[in-house]
Amino acid sequence: MEADKKILNLNVRGKRGNIVQVYPAVEYDFVPNTFEISKNDYVHIQWTGSNKNPLNNDGQGLPGTDRSNIVLLTNKTFDTQSINSFYAPLTTNGDLRVNYPFSLEKNGFMKLDDQDLIKLAFLRDNQIGGSLDELDDAGTYFDFGAKKVTSSGVFHYMSTRNNNFSNRDQKGLVVTYDNEFFDDFIGWNGGVIDFRVGKMSIPEGTINQLEHFRVDIKSLENVNQTELHAKVLMPNNFDKSTMASDLILIRKTKGILQKPFKINLKLKRALDIMESHDLYRINNELLTKVDSKINDDNLEFETNQSGIYVVKYEKNYAILIAVLVTIGVLVIIILAASFLLYKNPSVIKNLRHRTNNLKRSMNNQL
């Protein structure tokens, strides 16, 4: 496993029973219920069930037992308006509004292979024999191990064991991104989020309550088929040769930020002598410049606004014009001097005469 990759847990919480019977606990639920991860990171799916629940608690399967499994939900069978994300549309698999699983032959949950899909559905390697109808004879603990995420997409899934159509179901959502993202929960004391090409520093007193901060790093390839590329990047000449950084997406926070936070960003290369840089903030289709300072190949700026930030190399035309003007003036002086000497040959004779006199004087002194 690569040292720079993350391992994230997907678990199950809750117990057998309805909301009254399980109080002060909760009914079955996958946790986190919305699970987000980057492609090439690792997911570790595991949970613990029980055989010791109260026998009169509502639920499916043998009284007193709780079990969980994972299968992809089937897709919707009715048309709904498609919502195309401005930042990175992903292929959606399954729908939370249906209650039927996909056949394992068609199942593409996180694009796992057939054996892994069967293991998640039937708890293989954890099945001690007996009936598979409601997984009563599966062991209480399930460990899927750490699996590398190899595809992006949105995956709606369910547990077929806990799927009562009247008042409860156990469903979840996995979102796997093509791009990397880095996040943390930070409160009043402030903190730092280190990401691959820089860091975000949140000073003390920026936020009054615990807040989720997140930074996404998107390459040009990640957004190539999006409205962001078509409506903002292409018309403003953002490409591989002009982009000094990846696209840095700072997600919006729920709370109000009392202070700006600082971003340190490593550029793809240092500036040439004829180049300058501009930092831009993209919010929907609006492109605005942001004040920043640069030191070698590192850029710093402060902000308290969400949005996409990107650095662009710009040709420094002021320096170029100054160099061209200087060269032009020198050429004019040389041409003028040459023309003057050509028209006044006596000047050359006087210069030669003075040079000869100077040589004789120096020889006499020696």
Tell me what you see in this structure.
Helix content is 19%, strand content 34%. The protein has five helices and 20 strands. The chain has helices at 19-22, 114-122, 227-233, 317-343, 345-365, and strands at residues 7-13, 29-31, 34-38, 42-48, 71-72, 92-93, 141-148, 153-164, 168-177, 180-186, 191-195, 198-202, 211-218, 247-250, 261-266, 275-283, 286-290, 293-295, 298-303, 307-315. The protein has a six-stranded antiparallel sheet with strand order 10-13-14-20-16-17, with no helix packed on it. Strands 3, 5, 6, 8 and 9 form a five-stranded mixed sheet that branches. It has a five-stranded antiparallel sheet with strand order 11-12-15-19-18, with no helix packed on it. The longest helix has 27 residues, at 317-343. Residues 81-87 have low confidence and may be disordered.
Write the layout of secondary structure elements.
Elements: E1 7-13, H1 19-22, E2 29-31, E3 34-38, E4 42-48, E5 71-72, E6 92-93, H2 114-122, E7 141-148, E8 153-164, E9 168-177, E10 180-186, E11 191-195, E12 198-202, E13 211-218, H3 227-233, E14 247-250, E15 261-266, E16 275-283, E17 286-290, E18 293-295, E19 298-303, E20 307-315, H4 317-343, H5 345-365
Parallel strand pairs: 1-4, 3-9, 6-8
Antiparallel strand pairs: 1-2, 4-7, 5-8, 8-9, 10-13, 11-12, 12-15, 13-14, 14-20, 15-19, 16-17, 16-20, 18-19
